[in-house]
Amino acid sequence: MHTLRRLAQIVRAELVGNPDAVVNRANSFYQAVEGDVTFAETEWYLERINSSAATAIIVSSAVSGSDRNLLVASNPKLAFARAIEALHEVHYQSIGVSGDVVVGPGTVLGKELSIHPRVTIGRDAVIGNRVTLHPGVVIGDRCRIGDDTVIYANVSIYADCDVGSNVVVHAGTVIGADGFGFVPDEAGHQVRLRQLGRVRIEDDCDIGANCTIDRGGFEDTILRRGVKLDNLIQVGHSTEIGDDTVVAALTGFSGGTHVGQRCIIAGQAGTNQHITIGDGAVISGRTAVTKKVGAGAAIAGMGQNRGSWRRSQVLFSRLPELAERISRLEKAIREAGLMSEKAKLSNPKRKS
Amino acid sequence: MHTLRRLAQIVRAELVGNPDAVVNRANSFYQAVEGDVTFAETEWYLERINSSAATAIIVSSAVSGSDRNLLVASNPKLAFARAIEALHEVHYQSIGVSGDVVVGPGTVLGKELSIHPRVTIGRDAVIGNRVTLHPGVVIGDRCRIGDDTVIYANVSIYADCDVGSNVVVHAGTVIGADGFGFVPDEAGHQVRLRQLGRVRIEDDCDIGANCTIDRGGFEDTILRRGVKLDNLIQVGHSTEIGDDTVVAALTGFSGGTHVGQRCIIAGQAGTNQHITIGDGAVISGRTAVTKKVGAGAAIAGMGQNRGSWRRSQVLFSRLPELAERISRLEKAIREAGLMSEKAKLSNPKRKS
Amino acid sequence: MHTLRRLAQIVRAELVGNPDAVVNRANSFYQAVEGDVTFAETEWYLERINSSAATAIIVSSAVSGSDRNLLVASNPKLAFARAIEALHEVHYQSIGVSGDVVVGPGTVLGKELSIHPRVTIGRDAVIGNRVTLHPGVVIGDRCRIGDDTVIYANVSIYADCDVGSNVVVHAGTVIGADGFGFVPDEAGHQVRLRQLGRVRIEDDCDIGANCTIDRGGFEDTILRRGVKLDNLIQVGHSTEIGDDTVVAALTGFSGGTHVGQRCIIAGQAGTNQHITIGDGAVISGRTAVTKKVGAGAAIAGMGQNRGSWRRSQVLFSRLPELAERISRLEKAIREAGLMSEKAKLSNPKRKS
Asked: Is the ipTM of this structure higher than 0.85?
């Protein structure tokens, strides 16, 4: 619970309204009632601001004609994230180490842990302080898990992987399985390229549910500080993803991809092997990244510049019209005697 | 085992043939032998109906010249589903609660349960009657699981989620992980928007293996009664999917998607955030749903009307021919002196 | 550790250099140092061969002007795979059967096993010799697991499935969940087609992490000998994949797909139901396989021939230019009085 005076300081906003009003919950614009702080994300919400029952509303600029308590922030979504955190943060409380945990010899456990039942940890591993391991977590030999990291149920981490501090790994994710490297032999049978690298996940990463992050072939697979992965994401062997890059669900990175810092990669995208993506690049949903992407570039489709791709995509939907216009031109030209029938293609209905 | 007289009643078909013949198994057209009932799905099978060794064949209309036992049904696939069920239904038998189960304080267990070993249930949860929990299932604090629900191995359900009655959740699925909400701060670091909503799965839903259904930001993520999800499907935070909608594998729903009732969504489709899809819409495989879809609409490609998309797609494969026809027109027009060379684009080989 | 004399024999290469030099590790070109063998994969590496600190380098042909130890192999990638194996093979050592394992009645366990804690095996199953089961593995009733097979953490295998010898199944994969078969009844509710088939995985298969391989409807789902699946792959009910076929991540096979031998299927591809793909076909990343693919065919896009698709794709990116050229032609023709304004389409901006 905070007064608006205090909340405005926390979220770095300017208060227009009653500094002594009190909020105890963040809520969506639709659901917010008395006692809630909410957020007007778009113009559409701003126009309806007087219909909101929320005690305070975070906005990007003062709204004339409103008698509501407004928190005016230069980045209102960020201010709202901070408001949610201020009102709903759950303080860590150690639950200790369950008696129903298997820990291998040589493994060192930190302090103030929360290790649930049915956790299995291999030998010679190092588990930091205040780590939370949910039921069914399996951690391989010689892994290192940093302080304050939370690993949810049924996550599997293979041997020799390194997970930093303040990392969250959601349920069902697999870290350190073999990279996909095979080569056919003389008889056509696939021979494995044994994978000798590891996985290193740096501090402050968030990894969604049921992701797969393969160990490296020789070079480690690396998620740099603050990488955020959504669910069902494939990270191939020896791929490296730069600091603070954000990746949406069902995207796949082939082996040896190098992704820069602060990139935004939307859902169901994919990369060819050994592609480099520059810092700050923005990859649209379902993009096939088939060649190098420059820093700051915006890419869509089959690796096209996004603006160009959009123009092409509009014309794709108008292809029947374009084809019809070509036919009319041909008819006019032929009727004027300027092009013989022979000049038409032999079988226009089916080329390619 | 049923006589055809009885089976015809069960599957709501008209029998043409011997009412006293007996079947004890359903089988595919290819594999069916004496004692089996099978199903002629297409014209191709109907033409081969006399070559089948099955005792009875479910068809859409009587086949002239056939001496087989036919079950004529207006919806033969539905009739076949009922025949399979009638012949192969397995009646529920409680195996009780394994001694190797961890149950938190305050949790209430129903009657006639089948709880396998290695199951972990948090505190203050409610488990209904005749629930089956396979090994490795993890159920969080304060969850509710309805009667007759089956949860397969290694499923992870986070705290505060609600699963209805007669639901099936296949192995490895994750329910209730945090939605993917981040916003960059002043330094470019991603700040989490803490997710305060839950997941609610209504009665009669079937959820495939290794799916991920995220908890809501504020509004709950909801699967309405009878939703059927295939495998490896991502359901984003605060998404709602309407009654009896069917979704094929590897599809991803972004946060805040609203899907209507009785929609059919094929594989590897995806939606932009906050999209609405109307009742009864049909979304083709790999469609990117980029804008609102009306009730009953059929959509493909980048959210195009399906018929229009198909015409465009045919012309896409004929683009080399269209380009060649444009070149021939240009040549004819220039040779007739009707268009100068200058009127050609400066660099036709590489625009875009 | 091997002399180059010996290593050349093992990898079937011709040595150009010192036969008594010794290597003890395989490494990437970038990381290789004294004592390592590495691999010059492309021309780019061959040009830099003298800058490598590796003791030996596997190449496709002798490099003039190099004083390095070269292992010249007709298939250098295959030779490198064998070199890695020769230097890094880990010999199997049984760890026995953990006391913390649940095994159902009637199940037969082989010899020299490595069964980790928290494994659950149903009744009447058969586990071969030298099988490794990692923590959290769940194996259903009446399953058979062949000799020397390794199943990683938290894999779930449903009842009645058959896994061959020398198979690897990576963590989180689900084998034998119900195929996705539903049909709407008179009220629009989806009725399940109960799935009566099984899954059969033949010898020498490798299956990645978090895959889903559904059991058959009637015919079994089958992976033939030596199939290699990457991560997050969906294999639908009654699909069959032929010997030595390789499939990259996030690909989905609909029910009843028949894939031939030695096919190469890249990432995020998908197939329509009941499609046949011939032996040796090459399916590009993200291909939608919508119709039968002949043996040896190369396919991309919406099931097009790959060469044709590439030409179309280049022209897709040039659609704005093509549209502009059509407009210029129309202008020239109309200015010459050869086509009336009426011949233009009523609304060229928005047809489709």
From this structure: yes
